């Protein structure tokens, strides 16, 4: 017996105990509402989606072709439309997640208005967006199941076999999927990180991504001026997130440890070693220093330290920050990643300056010598000029192979004049296979684009505004938007229904019977799209 039928029977039994007081309650309708709202709390969502992620991680370990993907979404409606689209085109939501980008929260969701990605936005806006995303995904479930129930009613009225429709109801795949949620650098000390992590988990987050930058000096991963913290400080915040998961009963919650060390040349403080070769000593070994032979080598306010048996002074900037040695970024990344995995992190995030499979693979290979099942979440960032990067990669490969590249100017390969060239086509082929190649060769379990819907909103608005306020007038909307929605089968062409009017009508009918005042009658203009 299906869960749906079990619920009908259970509610009917409960109704019978009420001595007629529940005469207006239809057990079938109540069971439908229960089925349409599978997840009662954010913690229900977090526990369910954590299980999905753990299963997906195990499947990736067995077969790197089973990688996962997501797009960053800055509003619940955007996330909802994304998952409706994924399910429509792929037939399943499997291996598809949502990404919550701190960059987009700062740029689009702060009460201060647009802000840079520097942890300046309200921390409460992060769990609020998680809750909003899941509210819209749950509404997608309710709407899609509502269509199935209408089909079930119509089939019953016609005396038709309902087994196929009933099977779709019983095996309905939810639009609720894991969210990888960006907590930046924790928005404060480890207690602040714990408190915010709790709110994010309670809102539904099964996976929290945290970075090793200084919280009050946080920069976007693709900007200059990044400052990292010693390992002990970062591990304390990983512990804080794990405690939050455990306290709330999400025992298999996922932590993504992000390192910005590849592009970060500064540290705010120098940790104190307690034993030779410990983490603090390894961190300090990367510092840029000059040897101190006497007090004359020290200026007023300088500090000196013993490092590898020598007295040295670290290079300190006027703002008090300390510099790392040049060309140590890769080594620091590898140490960061190994240390994080050995102290409670589940996945890694290495922020790079370009999308290059071999560069990523070299670092992952070094990490896997110590932690064989190390896996990455990777930012397929819009901050990369993908076209130029991959055209230059092809150019460099051809040059190394001895091919004649005289027809190409490496510095100008972004130019449209090269778009139809052999080099450009090969570069596009590499872009198309990048995620598949990197999953296989560079240990990338999850590919995401941090802020794609920021760019799509800007591009689509520009295209509409250009035509609507220009010569096309209303045709710009009709041809460029509405006609495409109809032809491509987008549910939101019936925007009243997408906003919940049909679902509300159904509920009114449940509650009021024939007396219900419904919005979906013959005079509803949305009926023009029933074709």
UniProtKB/TrEMBL annotation:
Binding-site list for substrate: 101-103, 221-222, 258, 379-383, 450
Which keywords belong to this entry? Lyase, Magnesium, Metal-binding
Q: Which Gene3D superfamilies match?
A: Phosphoenolpyruvate-binding domains
Q: Any one Gene Ontology biological process term?
A: carboxylic acid metabolic process
SUPFAM superfamilies listed in its UniProt record = Phosphoenolpyruvate/pyruvate domain
Cofactor needs: Mg(2+)
List the active site: 220
Signal peptide, first to last residue = none
Q: Which InterPro entries match?
A: ICL/PEPM (IPR039556), Isocitrate_lyase (IPR006254), Pyrv/PenolPyrv_kinase-like_dom (IPR015813), Pyrv_kinase-like_dom_sf (IPR040442)
Textual note on the cofactor: Can also use Mn(2+) ion.
Residues binding Mg(2+): 182
Catalytic function, reaction form: D-threo-isocitrate = glyoxylate + succinate
State the protein's name: Isocitrate lyase
Q: Which organism is it from?
A: Salinimonas sediminis
